[in-house]
Amino acid sequence: MLVFMSQFKNEILLLASVPVIFLLTVAAGRFFGERGLVAWVSVATVSANIEVLILVRAFGMEQTLGNVLFASTFLATDILSELYGKKSAARAVNIGIFATVCFLIISQSWMLYAPSAEDWASESIRAVFSNTPRLIFVSLVIYAVSQRLDVMLYHKLWALTERRFGNKKSGLWLRNNCATLISQLVNAALFNLGAFWGMYDTGTLVSIVISTYVIYVFTSLLDTPFVYLARRIGTPRRDTAA
After folding, report:
1. 10 Å Cβ neighbour count for 186?
2. Exposed site from 82, 126, 134, 183, fewest CB < 10 Å?
3. Closest to 181 in 3D by CA, of 144, 149, 142, 138
């Protein structure tokens, strides 16, 4: 068992991260309502932009981390759309963009300081965040495009499912999966090409794009039960965020 866990450590961690991160997303909405979901979008967006710097090999493919965290932002906006409406989801996207811009400014200001002779962290921080401006700039553009596309598609499909099924609740699985899968395809292709062109060879880059979308397909299909769960358990009894 230990040998198996050691050999497939990355795969086990990636698979385990999906329900954990998605449950945290739902918990943010359950305990803190709209504000909790908006806060989650900001935290997950900034964290994903750091985690994406890590390249691992899992399921026979080269892939960056951050995909599950980023997928959780789509889950959060879908829950916001379902429970609070289109304006709420769009507001979360805008706040996520603002949080990312703030993080970019703050993290780059760290590079301006001259470290002390006793400093031990600056070299590592510079190594991690030296590529951050490019990654975050690309991420901001693609995030804005893909998330707005997701929100728009979600509500267009909602109108379609409402006409088809005769009520607002039915067809959640259809609008959730279709909107997310289409917007995630745009995100996977454009982000990875924009962020990593020139950093990796073509074969590795293609592998990253494919593996990223495969993960997004997997997480998109898995996040639908969590949207149902969020709708079922509702929001705090006194949700003053709405």
Report:
1. 14
2. 126
3. 149
Q: Which three-class secondary structure string do you get for 70-127?
A: HHHHHHHHHHHHHHHCHHHHHHHHHHHHHHHHHHHHHHHHHHHCCCCCCCCCHHHHHH
Task: Determine phi and psi for 121, rounding to 5 degrees.
Answer: -105, -25
Query: C-alpha angle 41/205/221, rounded to 5°?
Result: 45
What Rg do the C-alpha atoms of the chain give, in angstroms? 19
In a domain, 118, yes or no: no
Among candidate residues 96, 76, 74, 78, the one with its CA nearest the CA of residue 86:
78
Distance CA 228, CA 223 (A): 9
Kindly state whether residue 203 falls inside one of the protein's structural domains.
yes
Which residues are CB-neighbours of 216 under 8 A, at least 6 positions away? 67, 71, 180, 181, 184, 185, 187, 188
The residue segments making up the domain with residue 191 are 2-56+63-112+128-233
pLDDT in tens, 152-210: 999 999 999 998 888 888 888 889 889 988 998 888 888 878 877 777 788 888 887 88
Tokens of 113: 């300081």
242 band by pLDDT with thresholds 50, 70 and 90: very low
Please check whether residue 242 lies inside any domain of the structure: no
| Residue 122 in domain | no
Backbone angles phi, psi at 7, to 5 degrees: -70, -35
| pTM for the model | 0.84
